[in-house]
Every structure is written in structure tokens, then in C-alpha cells.
Design brief:
The complex is a heterodimer. Chain A is mostly helical. In chain A, about 40% of the residues lie in helices and about 0% in strands. Chain A has one helix spanning about 10-20. Chain B is of the alpha+beta class. In chain B, about 20% of the residues lie in helices and about 30% in strands. Chain B has 3 helices and 13 strands, in the order αββββββαββββββαβ. The chains are: A mainly alpha, B alpha+beta. The interface of A and B includes residues 2, 8, 16 and 25 of A.
């Protein structure tokens, strides 16, 4: 089982995180 | 008595209120479903031979784990959603999950924790900044975005200040030595906004408890940008 949590970070995840933030100062 | 227990390594994950996402890595796909369950699809093979061979479906409170092997163990090609459960599903409780699944559970938990640390639970617009208390409480992360471009991140491990010029400082807990006046003002305001967010969280949580229906009042947004 090669599960490397560091691999989770990518552009797609970053844009998901941005969508979570209420508007105003993204 | 088990010498080793999963609870010694990780707490039951909590995925309440997290928005759906599906994220793949080399050997797995981890998803937060619209039911707030967390799903791990373990992949075997590469290219056209790649198959989802094992699925762990974890309830949003982290306590119930359904495990199955799609297509009688032969697996299915990766799709845009997890393969549905067959009839023979193994159901485990957090306390009796066999050790061979612990690493997979811990991985799902790590992902959920990452998402919680980026998901605002309380957003407060003050005169000078937008302050967000995240979902990874207790001792949740805080992000303060000043309207002038400055920024502060507070976690249990560090405090990072980014001045409007882009100059940044990171402190590993403890005292904030050598701060200039501008940074001091940022920190002071961030501290006050953080306290207000904690008070709001506690007030709303108390109201939420009074209701019988399990309807969350969070996330909340207070005020607006001046």
C-alpha cells in the first residue's frame, strides 16, 4: 500500500479550497 | 485486550459539513461524498488494467466502516464515483477495524483533517479584515485576511504574518520577538477577531444543541466587508 498524503496537494485541491472561502477577499 | 489499538493512532474522523470532493493520487482515490461519508478506493494495476479493487466507505462520524471488493474481487475501472456496494459487505466499527485497514483509515483521516483545516466554520468581517475560524476544532486554525493585503495564519504550531509589502515572518508558538509596529497591530487585531469568532462559535453551538433536529447552524458569516 503506497499511500502518500503529500501527493494530495495539487491545483485541483487548491481551487476546491478557494471555493470554500466566502467571497470578499479571496 | 489489544496491545495496539487504532484509537492510539488516530481519532475517529469527522466529516460533518465538508463539501464534496474527489481527489486521486497514485494508488488511491479519496472522496468526501455528498452524504458527508468518506470513501477510499484502492487501485491496482496501471493504464488500461487499472481497477478499483477495494473500497472503504466511512461514515461522517468516523465510527462505521463498510469495506467491499467490487465485482467479486475482480474490480472495476475507475469511474467518476465509487463503485456501488455489492451484497457481501464487511461492516466494522472503529474499535474493531482489523489492523490491515488502519493505514488506509489513517490516510482518509489525514485527508479529512486537511479539508477541515481549510473549511471556514465562522467567518467574521471586521472593520479591517476578514477572519475565518476553520472546522478543525478544538483549537482550530484561523486565517485573517486584511483588506490592505496583510495576512495572518494561526495554527497550534505556528503563527505566520504576511505584511502588505509581502514580507513574512513565522513564529513557532511562544513569544513574538522582534515584531515591528505594523506587524504588532496586525497581530493584535487578529487576536481580537479570533476571540470574537470563538465566542460566536460557542454561542451558536449552544443554540444548535437546544434544537432537536440535527440541523447544523454552521458555517456562519457575520458582518460584511465595509
Amino acid at each position: 500500500d503506497d499511500l502518500d498524503a503529500e501527493e494530495l496537494y495539487d491545483d485541483r485541491l487548491e481551487s476546491y479550497f478557494k471555493q470554500l472561502v466566502p467571497p470578499g477577499m479571496q | 485486550y489489544q496491545m495496539n489499538a487504532l484509537c492510539d493512532k488516530v481519532s475517529p474522523l469527522r466529516a460533518h459539513r465538508l463539501k464534496p470532493i474527489r481527489q486521486r493520487t497514485k494508488n488511491a482515490v479519496v472522496s468526501i461524498l455528498d452524504t458527508e461519508e468518506v470513501c477510499m478506493e484502492l487501485l491496482k494495476g496501471s493504464g488500461a488494467q487499472e481497477r478499483v479493487k477495494e473500497v472503504l466507505r466511512i461514515s461522517c462520524d468516523g465510527y462505521t466502516i463498510h469495506i467491499y471488493h467490487p465485482n467479486e474481487g475482480r474490480g472495476f475501472p475507475l469511474d467518476d464515483r465509487p463503485p456501488s456496494a455489492p451484497e457481501d459487505v464487511y461492516v466494522y466499527h472503529f474499535d474493531n477495524l482489523p489492523e490491515k485497514f488502519w493505514k488506509k483509515y489513517q490516510y482518509a483521516s489525514k485527508f479529512v483533517h486537511l479539508v477541515r483545516s481549510k473549511t471556514p466554520k465562522v467567518t467574521l468581517y471586521t472593520k479591517y479584515a476578514k477572519c475565518m475560524l476553520m472546522e478543525n476544532g478544538p483549537k482550530a486554525d484561523v486565517e485573517v485576511l486584511f483588506y490592505d493585503g496583510g495576512k495572518i495564519n494561526k495554527t497550534t504550531e505556528f503563527l505566520r504574518i504576511v505584511e502588505k509589502s509581502g514580507k513574512s515572518y513565522t513564529f513557532d508558538g511562544g513569544k513574538l520577538n522582534g515584531l515591528n509596529e505594523e506587524a504588532k497591530i496586525y497581530v493584535e487585531h487578529a487576536h481580537k477577531a479570533h476571540q470574537t469568532c470563538l465566542e460566536l462559535e460557542s454561542t451558536i453551538a449552544a443554540q444548535e444543541k437546544r434544537k432537536e433536529k440535527q440541523l447544523s447552524f454552521f458555517p456562519i458569516i457575520i458582518g460584511r466587508r465595509p
